[in-house]
Design brief:
heterodimer, A: 364 residues, alpha/beta, Aspartate Aminotransferase, domain 2, Aspartate Aminotransferase, domain 1, 2 domains, 7-stranded mixed beta sheet, 3-stranded antiparallel beta sheet, 12 helices, 12 strands, B: 368 residues, 13 strands, 14% strand, globular, binds pyridoxal-5'-phosphate
């Protein structure tokens, strides 16, 4: 049994994926080939945003998006501690300061009310994360931001294709970022990511920063940038996979419901708000004696993973911020209880039955 | 006839079965990030290069940035580098927060002019970052002496000089860290962005590995903050197929450069690439100089002969460095020489017939 079954997916779409990759190789157009733009157009259209800009990874997408705001040292950016490190890493990379606020107990997404309390005169923006594939509460987040003149970045690394009140993830804030890391719901075959925005100026700046701060041509460098391009081969893989993605989102939701029906009485199953459509980047439950449960499942050949075992404010890397244990009780509690079960569009009912039975038997 | 600048298509045709298999392997195992493919390449590269550690990273720009971060270079520090290179070199310095200090180039080799370096050393100088441009090693023994004398770090930008040698020692092994790009058009190139760093220092190696993987060697334990800069497994697998050929390819490039020299030597209006003493030049680029560069370039374009200018503007004179307020007189060679340079088609796959075609076109241009 696999945690994420990319093999089966490849075999399903093999003809298209192979043809796409061959196309890139036989044309030897490996860097910024035409497939990049083709993918950018398709995905921009899909999320309903004017500009889509391919990047080397989800982390670089966040970094480039944040770079367009010209942060100054000591500017504060409010974000969640219950996420992958990339979200806050890019803030301190640009010498700004991450300010954490706790999450909501049910959705595990950032709590808009707490954002309000954390705003200071130095606060410049907010990075919200759509954790496990479910969008954060953007109506509230955006209105706090507007009242206080802050920008908002949506870290949609886990939620590409998800919906919030009928609108697509990656379309919910000023700048939005996603990741095509292979294990993400829409994944490529290496590192990859994308930024979306309706802002022409920011899009132009971002495209320049992505390729060494270029101006009108390759060797006209007008600002200090980075090298953070999406590989053409990776765009090709995404072009082959994307036509199947809508169906995959449905399948992910079916698998999630199937789990929830079976597990609801015995663990805390994911709570997706009525106005949300999740893409279930993870199907994560909260369980008593999590470590023993994980051990039990492991001995039965069932792979699981913990996202995330330690909230960011307690990571050694962020010890310089001076947060103590207890600072964000919900994030800390969830980190101790959360565990993700196998989740992908090709999961069989047989496997889901086995997983569910093993969990139920562990608790009985 | 179209003469490609670099002939990646022919190279692929020559290696097709192996490359196809390498890609297929990675995909069928779905081991796209980390794992054996990058690890195997790192080991093979370090071994072939004759160093203790190679760490694969996202690209050659990140490689320099990561190397400088490993040496704890940042705000308030100065790093000395050359004034003719791809912007990546100086950009990576600025990314760390350190100040870029440019040094003019030698007029003949276009490499950093070592005689100017010492004057630029201040009490803030932390490192020297020479570039082995076009595949030709800079005067690295002299640079190393300066580093030792002033207690500075030495990072070599070897993006264009894989396995090139200075006094029979490979570039990238003289100082603390050597950085590489495996951009598709480089002497050793992947099929997308890729890079690497080499070092003999265990501590630096550990830091660079950790830093480029979000500051973590054990999943979800982040000891430091880092970045996401990894070589994709697909790229590592492709590079592993190509690596055994690199020395032959370097030699073929050198042979092709000799053929160009033979066919171009009688044209008075151009000067041929200058090969300096003590080096093995691997001819990443074959760069000639002429006062009528723009016209010649146009003429070659019309003939279907692909060409390039590496680089049209010296680094201090790019808009990105306006804020440093440099003047023409500060770097006269870096100001003037880029106006004359032209890179001709160059790859191991280039044939003598193609070289003659290019040479005849250049003759024709000057005889007009
Ligand atoms: C919430 C979140 N943000 C950012 C990232 C970074 O994406 P990538 O791994 O593509 O750099 C990830 C995924 O790893 C993520 O889950
Ligand atoms: C001298 C030099 N340094 C650094 C780089 C950066 O490498 P990359 O393009 O892989 O980021 C290059 C190549 O582009 C280069 O030629």
């Amino acid at each position: 049994m696999r945690f994420i079954d990319l093999q089966t997916q490849y075999l399903e779409y093999k003809t298209e994926i192979d043809a796409q990759i061959n196309d890139v190789i036989s044309n030897a157009s490996f860097i910024m080939g035409s497939k990049i733009e083709e993918l950018e157009d398709i995905l921009a259209n899909y999320v309903g945003i004017k500009h889509a800009i391919g990047c080397a990874s989800g982390t670089d997408a966040l970094l480039l998006a944040l770079m367009t705001y010209d942060l100054q040292p000591d500017d504060e950016i409010i974000t969640t501690p219950f996420t992958f490190i990339a979200t806050s890493e890019v803030i301190s990379f640009l010498k700004a300061k991450p300010v954490f606020v706790d999450i909501k107990e049910k959705s595990y997404n950032i709590d808009p009310k707490q954002i309000r309390n954390a705003i200071t005169s130095k606060t410049k923006g907010i990075i919200a994360v759509d954790i496990f594939g479910q969008c954060a509460n953007y109506d509230e987040i955006n209105s706090v931001a507007q009242e206080n003149n802050l920008f908002v970045i949506e870290d949609a690394a886990q939620s590409f294709g998800a919906e919030y009140k009928g609108k697509k993830a990656c379309s919910l804030t000023d700048m939005t970022c996603t990741s095509f890391f292979p294990a993400k719901p829409l994944g490529c075959y290496g590192d990859g990511g994308m930024v979306f925005t309706n802002n022409d100026k920011k899009a132009e700046k971002l495209k320049s920063l992505r390729v060494h701060g270029k101006g009108s041509h390759k060797y006209d460098n007008i600002q200090i940038g980075v090298n953070a391009r999406l590989d053409t081969i990776q765009a090709a893989v995404l072009l082959a996979k994307f036509p199947h993605y809508k169906k995959e989102i449905e399948l992910r939701n079916q698998k999630a419901s199937y789990y929830t029906e079976r597990l609801n009485d015995c663990v805390i199953t994911p709570h997706v708000c009525a106005h949300n459509l999740s893409v279930y980047a993870q199907y994560s439950i909260r369980a008593k004696n999590r470590d023993q449960l994980q051990e039990h499942l492991n001995t039965k050949g069932i792979p699981t993973a913990v996202h995330y075992p330690r909230p960011l404010h307690l990571q050694t890397a962020f010890s310089f911020l001076g947060y103590k244990k207890g600072a964000f009780p919900i994030s800390e509690k969830v980190s101790n209880e959360i565990v993700s079960l196998p989740m992908h569009p090709f999961l069989t009912e047989k496997d889901q039955d086995k997983i569910s039975e093993e969990i139920i038997s562990f608790y009985s | 006839m179209i003469i490609p600048f670099v002939d990646l298509k022919t190279q692929y045709q020559n290696l097709k079965p192996e490359i196809d298999k390498a890609i297929e392997d990675v995909i069928s195992k779905t081991m796209f990030i980390g794992g054996t493919y990058p690890e195997d390449f790192e080991k093979a590269y370090a071994e072939k290069y004759g160093v203790k550690h190679c760490i694969s990273v996202g690209n050659g720009t990140d490689a320099i940035y990561i190397a400088l971060k490993a040496l704890n270079i940042g705000l308030g520090d100065e790093v000395i580098t050359t004034s003719v290179s791809w912007i990546a070199t100086s950009e990576a310095i600025s990314q760390t927060g350190a100040k870029v200090v440019f040094v003019d180039i030698e007029q003949d080799s276009l490499l950093i002019d070592v005689s100017f370096i010492e004057k630029k050393i201040t009490n803030k100088t932390k490192a020297i970052l020479p570039v082995h441009l076009y595949g030709q090693p800079a005067k690295i023994d002299k640079i190393k002496e300066l580093c030792d004398k002033h207690n500075l770090y030495l990072v070599e930008d070897c993006a264009q000089a894989h396995f090139a040698e200075f006094k029979r020692q490979r570039v990238g092994t003289f100082g603390d860290i050597g950085t590489f790009s495996f951009y598709p058009g480089k002497n050793l190139g992947a099929y997308g962005d890729a890079g690497g760093v080499i070092t003999n220092n265990d501590e630096l190696a550990k830091f660079m590995r950790m830093f480029s993987r979000h500051g973590s060697l054990v999943k979800h334990q982040h000891e430091i903050e880092g970045i996401n800069s990894r070589m994709d497994a697909i790229q590592a697998a492709i590079l592993s197929v190509k690596l055994p050929h690199i020395l032959d390819w370097n030699k073929q490039r050198f042979d092709n450069a000799c053929l160009y020299n033979k066919h171009l030597k009688d044209i008075k209006e151009i000067s041929l690439p200058k090969i300096m003493a003590d080096v093995s030049h691997i001819f990443h680029l074959y760069v000639i100089k002429t006062d009528r560069r723009d016209k010649l370039q146009k003429f070659l374009d019309e003939k279907g002969i692909q060409n390039g200018v590496h680089y049209p503007t010296g680094l201090p004179f790019l808009k990105a460095y306006d804020y440093l307020g440099h003047k023409e007189e500060d770097f006269p060679n870096a100001f003037n020489e880029p106006k004359k340079i032209l890179s001709l088609p160059m790859s191991p796959e280039l044939t003598e017939e193609q070289i003659i075609y290019v040479s005849n076109a250049i003759k024709e241009f000057f005889e007009k």
